[in-house]
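Hi team,

As requested, here is the filled-out complex form for the guanosine-5'-diphosphate run. I kept the field names the same as last time so the parser does not choke. Let me know if anything looks off before we queue the next batch.

— J.
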Amino acid sequence: MALERTLAILKPDCIRKEKVGEVLRRIQDAGFQIRAMKMITMSKAEAEGFYAVHEDKPFFDDLTDFMSGGPCVPVVLEKEDAIADFRALIGATDPDEAAEGTIRSDFAGSIQENIVHGSDSPSNGQKETGYFFPEHEIVANTANT
Ligand code: GDP
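And here is what came back:
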């Protein structure tokens, strides 16, 4: 087991539905430590940069409109095996396919408006964390957190 960081984003639908508290509660109850967090509204260009890997997909324009269409909350999370454990906590991309009891199964409205993002590999966790937070904005691990 390795201590890992993952980048979560509580997406604009999560903020709109006022589920920020509930989603963070589940994340903390699952043992993730919050190392950085802020509320921002991405520009269209920032959303396009974040999702550049999907630029050839038919849903790219809709996705980046959605992600830049309201405030979102990027969060840096730390835990042993954070990447895999966070993906398990949020469930499959499509809420209809997400396992029962996962965040997306319980809160998401569609495959696009699926409440939360989670990095899919340790290297993407590092890259995506750096997209929103310079290292000095990430709080170090301490004995009581
Ligand atoms: P994730 O890693 O589970 O977030 O899924 P992907 O990396 O495959 O896709 C990134 C994001 O694009 C998803 O979280 C959705 O918001 C959106 N998305 C993925 N597939 C589709 C799709 O088929 N249609 C639409 N409209 N959006 C999608």
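Two things worth flagging: The mean pLDDT is 96. The pocket of guanosine-5'-diphosphate is lined by residues 54, 59, 62-63, 93, 111-112, 114, 117, 120 (CB under 6 Å).

Thanks,
J.
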